[in-house]
Amino acid sequence: MSDDAAVDPADPGRIVRVDLVRGHADDDELAAVVSVATAAYLQETRAAVAEEQPRRSAWQITATAPRPPLRRDLGWGPHSA
Q1: Which H or E run includes 17?
Q2: What torsion, rounded to 10 degrees, do the Cα atoms 73, 78, 80, 81 define?
Q3: Rounded distance between C-alpha atoms, residue 14 and residue 7, angstroms
Q4: Burial class (CB in 10 A: 0-12, 13-18, 19+), 1
Q5: Is the dihedral of CA 20, 33, 5, 16 positive or negative?
Q6: Which of 6, 56, 63, 67 has the fewest Cβ atoms nearer than 10 Å?
Q7: Domain residue extents for the chain
Q8: How far does the chain reach from its first CA to its final CA, in angstroms?
Q9: What is the DSSP string of 18-56?
């Protein structure tokens, strides 16, 4: 089992850990895995763009406001007060 750590170029303070759990990879194969994973991660982060204002879902639009809490001081019947 071999451990290699690759520094993420997008965030220099973050370390990504790669664990080899099967087989025997040499240094060139590990470097290829790290470079492909880093390129895929960078491509994904460039493509990930959040909406400026999130859209309200149909659930939020049709949802009604919650009921006010029950007034316990009124009692249960018309003559209980």
Answers
A1: strand 15-20
A2: 50
A3: 6
A4: exposed
A5: negative
A6: 67
A7: 2-48
A8: 76
A9: EEE-SS---HHHHHHHHHHHHHHHHHHHHH----SSPPP
| Tens of pLDDT, residues 39-61 | 998 898 888 887 777 788 888 88
Name residue 2's beta-bridge partners. 20
pTM beyond cutoff 0.85: no
What element of type H or E holds 59? helix 58-62
**CA-wise closest residue to 2 among 38, 14, 23, 16:** 23
Q: Which residues of the chain have pLDDT under 50?
A: 1-5, 7-8
- Structural tokens at position 40: 């895929």
